[in-house]
Amino acid sequence: MASPFQQLQKILKHEAQDGYRNRIVIGGMGRFADHWYRQARAALQGGDPELLLALEAIYADLRRYEAADPEERRRLVEGLEARIQEALQRERHLRSSRSAAPAPPEPVGRPQPSPPSPHPAAPPEPPALRKPEAEPPEKPRARPAPPVSPRRAAQVESLGLEAPVHVIHGLGRERAQRLGRLGVQTIRDLLYLLPRRYVDFRALKPIHRLRVGEEVTVIGEVMDIGSRQTGNGLTVIKALITDGSGVVECTWFNQPYLLDRIKPGAFIVVSGRVDEFLGRPVFRSPEWEPADRELLHTARIVPIYPLTEGLTQRFMRSLMKRVVDYWAERVEDPLPAWIREAYGFPDLPAALRQVHFPDDWEPLEKARRRLAFDEVFYLQIGLLEARRRWRSAPGRALAFDEALLERAIEALPFTLTNAQRRALSQILEDLRSGVPMNRLLQGEVGSGKTVVAALAAYAVFLAGVQSAIMAPTEILAEQHHRNLLALAERWAAAGLPTPTIRLLTAGVTGVERAQIYAELAEGSCQLVVGTHALIQEEVAFRDLAFVVIDEQQRFGVLQRAALRGKGYNPHVLVMTATPIPRTLALTLYGDLDLSVLDEMPPGRRPVLTRWLMPEERERAYAFIRRQVAQGHQAYIICPLVEGSDKIEARAAVEEYERLQREVFPDLRLGLIHGRMKSEEKEAVMNAFARGEIQVLVATPVVEVGVDVPNATVILIEGADRFGLAQLHQFRGRVGRSTYPSYCLLLAESPSEAAIERLRAIETIYDGFQLAQKDLEMRGPGDFLGTRQSGFPELRLADLTDLRLLELAREAAERLAERDPELQAPEHRRLAEAVTRFWQGPVEPS
Ligand code: ADP
Ligand code: MG
């Protein structure tokens, strides 16, 4: 068989004769380079380090060829010609010395550094290198058979990618279970278990040129290997590796089995960061593998996988390699060719191969982008579909007396902001339209969403039908109820008709509850506010036409659907204070129309926020005292306690007692926590709202929605335990009036991440900017709380990549024009993929 170097030599000769026009090989020199490299690598199994080095160098030049201009190409070919000559010399030399008797191995004291000679004629034979042929044969490796145990073949055949991972040959039940902990159940899951990051070990260097700090790969012979125990019981394995140009020391800790795997005389590839010891370069715990195999752990861009106990990087990589080699090409690409072509994406098998074992950074980036696109594309298809379904249902066109509504607005204790006006008129438009409303009202904490919802509900009442407002906590539902009653009073005073308003929470029981059920069923109650109690089966409406879901991020899709199901295609308004950039909102809530309150009621000032040191607690108390002396009120938030409500409540009781006894004996303190009865909670909140309680000690239950404008300071204990969004919500409890307001944060020993959060909340007041920061710090999945919200999990897509989101949206729209129901045969697999995506991954066991 001709040497790969001779082959290449021929091709280059023709290329030179043809004037370096890249026409000699079909598909171009770039493709050929990859092909040739793989072949040559396989042919060089013996692993002569010099030849391998030559191979790498030649390959690197070949890859540059295509992009080069003719003049550069000429120079490249000349350089290549010289390298090939060298390699051929070396091959001849190896062949001739094979027939000669093997030289006795020399002692490996201090090999002479011998830089590669520029002369093709006489490459110095490295003294310490043994001939590859003389190497003891490695254990024969299993042939690359399908990585599936034969017994299971039939099962796998029918299940395909949905086959459970334990069918993989040699994986074993225990490891399959461990993979389960990473969320991997099926072969498909495994293919989509992507590297967390990659290390570039492609830089192949002769040992004498190693520089401290660089990440490199060397190929060489093991001169010596041994182990010793350290004082504290560690086993240190130390090996000396030489490639003829120098010697480098490698150490590994606590891996005694390496003594069996790495034998003196073996050729190995070592990749890692070059360290220094007594002025000499060393590798500490480098990656390594025998030089005669396809390299997985070294000398390439090496993937780093997420791990769990009992799984090692090496195991994962080998497993992945087998799985990707066999399965990637069997994955059918759901993305229709016309989309792939329009956006220049690689096909799915190629993308999967590259994302696990990239040839280079560029194909890796393309692969990741393609896979990320898949996610947001499926997301968009689902959202557009939901929207289409929603809008095709017949909706109620409500008619109401506009003049009465206008008078109700005038009767408010304040003037609506322009943003509130705009949002309200968008909502009213929906109510009148005859198409069911599905609208998101988004606005910063304190921007006044409630009153917009209340006015819309009032219009619905004027139209003669019912509304329901659902809030995530009893406290919040009660507050809405209180506020609505106060509004109704003003409307009555202005001579306007007023609805009957009821509160329905878990705390409302017995006769009272039965009474409310009856009123809802017969229609004499036109507006009900409540918690989850509203979606109990027993609750029935006479004619529910409008549903408001406050703080929608607190509810799952099912709960929203349940409330909606209480009416016949009711109009739905969901409200949230989670500020997401508009484009992002449109993309994520593609099925919703969007109204934004981007303006605060007049006179609001930013809540001055300070992170205090623990020893400044007394100062914080003094500050609270001064605010109270000026007639204001304060919140003190107790830390989040892991464990249970009960423990948290107990801690809050203790803190409350301590504060009352030792810190504020002369002030009126109140306590509120999750374990109190509804009536107790309501009594406390009422007393606080009326100003009878001056300082309210609370567990995190008051996080959302609570509105007592006279409160001007909030002290948050254990602030490091809360997320950014939560802290921002807490802060939103104050600053609800024109008085200057303050947020004080205390944290005993914050982690690094917590410090970053505290700094952010201290300096960033704008909800949008904070959300952006939050997104960056936590990643999209956590940010959206996707699991509980029923939103599919995004593993790859970066939700800050608006460009990609827009691309996916556009593609989904184009698709909807062609084939909205995905019924064309060419979209069958796409339809399956979309369904699978929305069903979500199996929960890790
Ligand atoms: P959020 O959007 O956080 O739910 P709320 O609806 O609780 O905010 O409103 C915050 C406070 O602002 C309430 O006390 C409310 O009465 C008041 N408010 C709402 N709109 C206006 C306005 N246009 N002018 C003055 N105060 C307003
Ligand atoms: Mg609110």
From TrEMBL:
CDD domains named among the record's database cross-references: DEXHc_RecG, RecG_wedge_OBF
Class of the enzyme per the UniProt entry, highest EC level: isomerase
Record GO biological process: DNA recombination; DNA repair
Compositional bias annotation for Pro residues: 102-127
A Gene Ontology molecular function term of the record: 3'-5' DNA helicase activity
Keyword Transit peptide applies: no
Stretches for region Disordered: 89-155
Residue stretches of biased makeup (Basic and acidic residues): 128-141
Keyword set, alphabetical order: ATP-binding, DNA damage, DNA recombination, DNA repair, DNA-binding, Helicase, Hydrolase, Isomerase, Nucleotide-binding
Catalysed transformations (reactions): Couples ATP hydrolysis with the unwinding of duplex DNA by translocating in the 3'-5' direction; ATP + H2O = ADP + phosphate + H(+)
EC number in record: 5.6.2.4
Helicase C-terminal domain span: 616-776
Pfam families linked to this entry: DEAD, Helicase_C, RecG_dom3_C, RecG_wedge
Domain Helicase ATP-binding: 430-597
InterPro entries in the cross-refs: ATP-dep_DNA_helicase_RecG, DEAD/DEAH_box_helicase_dom, Helicase_ATP-bd, Helicase_C-like, NA-bd_OB-fold, P-loop_NTPase, RecG/Mfd, RecG_dom3_C
PANTHER family referenced in this protein's UniProt entry, alphabetically: ATP-DEPENDENT DNA HELICASE HOMOLOG RECG, CHLOROPLASTIC (PTHR47964:SF1)
Sequence similarity: Belongs to the helicase family. RecG subfamily.
The name this protein goes by in its record: ATP-dependent DNA helicase RecG
Organism: Thermoflexus hugenholtzii JAD2
